[in-house]
């Protein structure tokens, strides 16, 4: 009995490990979560994403890769084929910034500092710099993709359209900075401004457009008077 009591005393006197404090996990740095590795979509969201993915053009991808490699120079590595390879190639923004700089005279590129980085905010910052420079270059705001379209790979078809419009505009400028085959891209329509004299403008104001109708050739010949029976010959 005494031995059991002594054993119980030893157990009571043994050091007790401290209990974990409440909220201790909140003090630890959470694991990094990549926005590109988002979970799968379901239901309507999945159907919309599949519809967007089907708009991606593999043939246009090959044309864009050939142009970017020629425009940026030989020190740019070639991407892996396919949509995912194309997205990873452009994701950090360095290739895009080099592309837009190559469309300007040497030393006048809109992106002053281009640096490869594994940090997400730095990659998205360089993509944003490219988008701003592309809009200043002449691309319409409605033809420019969003940063998340490329960085998260949500809409690579829109990325393709932006780059295609950029190539078409570079060809249309004709400033000698475009490198590659101009036939790779559709030709942009050129402005054809007309200048008319004041007399010509006043003359046009007195003309009735055919969309409003015309009274030429109108006649009452052959018409039967009101209230009279129709003459059938």
UniProtKB/TrEMBL annotation:
Pfam families for this protein: Calponin (PF00402), CH (PF00307)
GO cellular component, one term: actin cytoskeleton
One GO-annotated biological process of the protein: actin filament organization
Stored InterPro entries: Calponin-like, Calponin_repeat, CH_dom, CH_dom_sf, SM22_calponin
Domain Calponin-homology (CH) as annotated: residue spans: 58-170
Molecular-function GO terms, alphabetical: actin filament binding
Family: Belongs to the calponin family.
Protein name: Transgelin
Organism: Accipiter nisus
């Amino acid at each position: 009995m005494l031995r059991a009591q002594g054993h119980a005393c030893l157990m009571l006197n043994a050091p007790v490990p401290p209990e974990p404090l409440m909220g201790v996990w909140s003090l630890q740095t959470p694991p990094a979560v990549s926005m590109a590795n988002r979970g799968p979509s379901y239901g309507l969201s999945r159907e919309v994403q599949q519809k967007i993915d089907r708009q991606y053009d593999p043939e246009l991808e090959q044309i864009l890769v050939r142009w970017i490699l020629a425009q940026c120079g030989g020190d740019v590595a070639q991407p892996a084929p396919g949509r995912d390879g194309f997205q990873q190639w452009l994701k950090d923004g360095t290739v895009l910034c080099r592309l837009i700089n190559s469309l300007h005279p040497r030393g006048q590129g809109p992106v002053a500092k281009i640096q490869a980085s594994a940090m997400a905010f730095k990659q998205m910052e360089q993509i944003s710099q490219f988008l701003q420079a592309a809009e200043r270059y002449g691309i319409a705001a409605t033809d420019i993709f969003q940063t998340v379209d490329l960085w998260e790979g949500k809409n690579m078809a829109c990325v393709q359209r932006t780059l295609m419009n950029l190539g078409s505009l570079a060809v249309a400028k004709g400033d000698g900075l475009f490198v590659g085959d101009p036939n790779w891209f559709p030709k942009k329509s050129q402005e054809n401004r007309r200048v008319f004299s004041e007399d010509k403008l006043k003359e046009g104001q007195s003309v009735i457009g055919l969309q409003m109708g015309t009274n030429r050739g109108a006649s009452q010949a052959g018409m039967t008077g009101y209230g009279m029976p129709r003459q059938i010959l």
